[in-house]
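We keep the chain:
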Amino acid sequence: MTIFGARLIGVKGPPRAERKVKVAFTEKELEEAIDRALAGGKLKAVTDSSPVSLSTLKRKVAARNKGRSIERQRPGPAPLLLSECEADIVTWIAAMQRRLVPVQPWEVLEAANERHHMIHSNLRSVKDLTTGWYNRFVDHHPELSLRSSEWISRARNEADAASMGAFFYELTKLVIEHNISSSRVWNLDETSFVSKHQSSSVFAVRGSSNVWSKITDTSFHLSAVAAVSAGGRAAQPLYICQPKVSGEPLLTGVT
């Protein structure tokens, strides 16, 4: 045995008490452990037959005695935006999708910043929410997914079975009233010059088969061309070019 200062080298002290390994437990198991402790059971005896640790049980029993909530809190720092505000944004995303105006990711971040600054308007320096908050928002709401939106024109969106039926009967009425022959019925085609709309990434509720975006702008150049009549008469070919200045004839050699 060697004595070094006030410490004995080579002499084993009393065995340490074994530390209880942390085990996950449910809210029901926690409630049962608290009820047993409040009913008069010893805390050590309760924790020996429960996955709840002694320190956790002491803290929860003390909170219950003081009338405080014992619900588990989310680990980490407090969320920058209240859960009610996030739920409001989710509702807004679903409503905009039903109106054929789906929300893009930058619009979600913009809406969150509006609410964030409104809540903390009394503070001098309030920083904007960043992509870090956006990524956490996506993780918190698995019912949302990033989808590819397809464009649909207003004319196509407003056409339904009722309007098509009314259009057919109106045409039939005009043909009968004006005694229109087959020579006056032509197959028409239309040409417009407008940029092609590309699909974009938008937020949508999971489960919907298609996500549509309504086109609000109109074509600035639209031409309707008659090709062949129902009586067999064919019109002369017509070439429609986009209105722009060109140094060379566009239709050189066209027959």
Observations:
- The two ends are 114 Å apart (CA to CA).
- Helices lie at 27-38, 43-48, 54-65, 83-98, 105-119, 131-140, 154-158, 161-177.
- The first strand starts at residue 2 and ends at 4.
